[in-house]
Amino acid sequence: MEIVLLKTFVSLAATCNFSETAKILNMTQSTTSHQIARLEEDLGQKLFIRTTRQCQLTKMGEIFLQDAKDILKKVSDVEKKFKPEHLTGNICVGIPDDIYLFRPMSQAIAEFTATHPRVQVDVVASLAESLRGDLDSGTVDIAFLRQASDINSGIHIGSERLVWSGADNCLHSPDLPLRLAFISGPCIYKRTAVNALESAGLHWRCVMTCTNPEGVKAATKAGLAISIFNQGDLGADMPVISEHRGLPALPSLNIALHYASATPSSAVTALAELLSSTLRLMLIETR
User: Fold this and answer.
1) Are residues 117 and 138 in the same domain?
2) Which of 81, 120, 162, 221 is the most buried (most CB within 10 A)?
3) Is 173 helix (H, G, I), strand (E, B) or coil?
């Protein structure tokens, strides 16, 4: 049984579409179909029910899927353990646009490239919605995305506690709306804050938007506005505004790992595992 057949099978099980799988694996649709047929012949079992445009796993296909994933992971683990120089290629990774995450994740990437000099790693730091688009287009190979706690997509890495921070003069007054500062664009922090305030029936207005999180911090430190932050991202000069001051409680957010491909390369998987463990440790330390 050839490893390439297992990779094609796992990818097709994820997409349920021969054409999409062929694009992901950079092969023709007829080659994809032929490889699945060879695998079914090797196993003596039908793995997919085919229709005109889509396909779905048979009962035996569902059973075999986990076995195929286990085999591919084992092969990848062995290659990483005994042949670190085997890893090659270019990887683009997307990470949240937060200063407090840059140092540990940058150090982990530097460690990875030192161990695997034949792998070229590029980094994109941006908002979750932007990174999600990069995943869909294949611009990045992996991305760590912030998402609401009720979203189960991706591989869960950890949770972040959100808090309010800002000067006392910006707190709620019956006669005046709250003054807020936010990152411009589709920022999940802004969406979370607005949902919490409107659910609590509090009036607010945005007095500043900025493309850089450091600009929002500067606005809160100067007394121009309040905003929400990850607790681990607060400096000593950024006090947390306790909930008894009239502001609503904030939910936690999750960070999840997402792959652009259903069958990532060994290099992509190795970097994803290293960054995942680094990020998990970081989130534990900042609780």
Assistant:
1) yes
2) 162
3) strand
Q: What is the pTM of this model?
A: 0.67
φ, ψ of residue 179 in degrees (nearest 5): -95, 120
pLDDT tens digits for 218-231?
A: 989 888 999 998 88
CA 215/CA 270 separation, integer angstroms: 35
pLDDT in tens, 206-260: 999 988 888 888 989 888 999 998 887 787 888 888 766 788 889 888 999 999 9
Burial status of residue 274 (CB atoms within 10 A of its CB: 0-12, 13-18, 19 or more): middle
* Same domain membership, residue 196 and residue 177: yes
Using DSSP, state whether 139 is helix, strand or coil.
Answer: coil
C-alpha span between 21 and 30 (Å, rounded): 11
Residue with token string 């992996």: 142
The one-letter amino acid code at 96 reads P
Structural domain tally of the chain?
A: 3
CATH number of the domain residue 189 falls in: 3.40.190.10
Strands 204-210 and 142-148: unpaired
Count of C-beta atoms within a 10 Å radius of residue 69: 15
Q: Cβ neighbours of residue 219 under 8 Å, at least 6 residues apart? A: 181, 207, 208, 210, 225, 227
* Residue 35: CATH number of its domain: 1.10.10.10
Task: Tell me whether residue 243 is in a domain.
Answer: yes
